[in-house]
Design brief:
Elements: H1 2-20, E1 28-32, H2 39-46, E2 55-59, H3 63-72, E3 77-81, H4 82-90, E4 95-104, E5 109-112, E6 126-129, H5 133-145, E7 154-157, H6 163-168, E8 174-177, H7 181-187, E9 191-195, E10 204-210, H8 219-238, H9 244-251, H10 255-263, E11 265-266, H11 270-277, H12 280-296, H13 313-316
Parallel strand pairs: 1-2, 1-3, 6-7, 6-8
Antiparallel strand pairs: 3-10, 4-10, 4-11, 5-8, 5-9
Helix pairs in contact: 2-9, 4-12
């Protein structure tokens, strides 16, 4: 009888003990696409900055794939533009912004093929745009600033990697693009008709984290990640040009192109990040503008409750 009771109780006891074991912290899986502002993350990884943290950088071909990775739970952190964060939040995925990588100050450009040098010459032409939030947003801002009608253009969805080839082959007449395709196109004689410098402070690249779910990072993990990354970031800020070879491993630009590209980015210190991200009036205005464009073009079906989208407490704890 006792043996039989043991046989019944033992499996249950083992299951109870297993349930009592603390769940291991999830791996920090950070999705990115290729962009100069995100390259310090890869330098940090190569320099083994993240001690006692399981950090994996997941390289995607395009921002749309990063968005899908976040939706599917393949990643739990992502490097994206703020307008894309608004798009994700509007879809119901609980996220928060915890770091500002850069502000684009000319690094995103509308480039036209050789032979087109004026905005007026684009009428009736085919425009290649990545099918994500930022490309659509910048196109709408271009139209608005120049008082143009969207119906006068034919939009063609193009992954970033196809921009140079599509323009060269005559598949499109202009592309809304960024590095590393931007430099390829400029080498081929493309002409910039619009850049993010014309919409100052509107194109922000940020790090977002999923707040809830089985694989959501813990508060302690995020704190440790930000602290370790910040220590590395401070070293880089003291001498950006000294880090150019490491920053260029994936971009593969010429030295002149790399200097030009990083000159078109504002890379804020932590103090500057806090000042900007904690300015609720300004940030809410920017996010409302994103939201309106995304609603107008059908990329979101409902407004975003973005009141608490930005969380500066990790920055303020540094």
């Amino acid at each position: 009888m006792i043996k039989r009771m043991r046989a019944v109780l033992l499996p249950g006891l083992l299951m109870w003990l297993a349930a009592c074991q603390p769940r291991p912290d999830p791996t920090l899986r950070i999705g990115t696409n290729l962009w100069p502002g995100y390259e310090p993350l890869y330098v940090a990884r190569d320099q083994r900055v993240f001690q006692s943290l399981d950090v994996q950088l997941i390289e995607y071909r395009a921002a749309g794939q990063v968005l899908n990775g976040l939706r599917k739970g393949t990643i739990n952190m992502a490097a994206l533009t703020l307008d894309e964060a608004v798009r994700i939040s509007a879809s119901g995925i609980p996220i928060e912004v915890i770091w500002l990588f850069n502000i684009s100050d000319g690094a995103d450009q509308l480039l036209a093929r050789p032979g087109i040098s004026q905005i007026s010459e684009l009428s009736g032409k085919r425009i290649g745009i990545e099918s994500n939030a930022l490309g659509a947003y910048l196109w709408q801002r271009f139209l608005s600033l120049n008082h143009l009608n969207a119906a006068d253009y034919e939009l063609v969805g193009l992954d970033l990697a196809a921009h140079a080839q599509a323009l060269t082959n005559g598949e499109v007449d202009a592309v809304m693009t960024f590095e590393p395709e931007k430099s390829k196109l400029l080498r081929l004689g493309a002409k910039a008709l619009f850049t993010s410098k014309e919409v100052p402070g509107e194109v922000l690249d940020v790090l977002i984290v999923r707040k809830t779910g089985d694989n959501a990072p813990t508060t302690a993990q995020i704190q440790q990640f930000i602290r370790q990354y910040h220590q590395h970031f401070q070293q880089m800020q003291q001498n950006w040009q000294g880090w150019y070879p490491q920053l260029n491993k994936r971009l593969k630009l010429s030295e002149q192109e790399l200097v030009q590209t990083y000159g078109e980015l504002q890379i804020p210190s932590v103090t500057m990040q806090i000042q900007l991200l904690s300015n609720q009036v300004k940030m809410q205005k920017i996010m409302q503008d994103y939201q309106q464009v995304l609603l107008d073009i059908g990329m979101i079906s409902q407004p975003c409750d973005c009141t608490n989208l930005i969380n500066t407490r990790y920055l303020e704890a540094l």
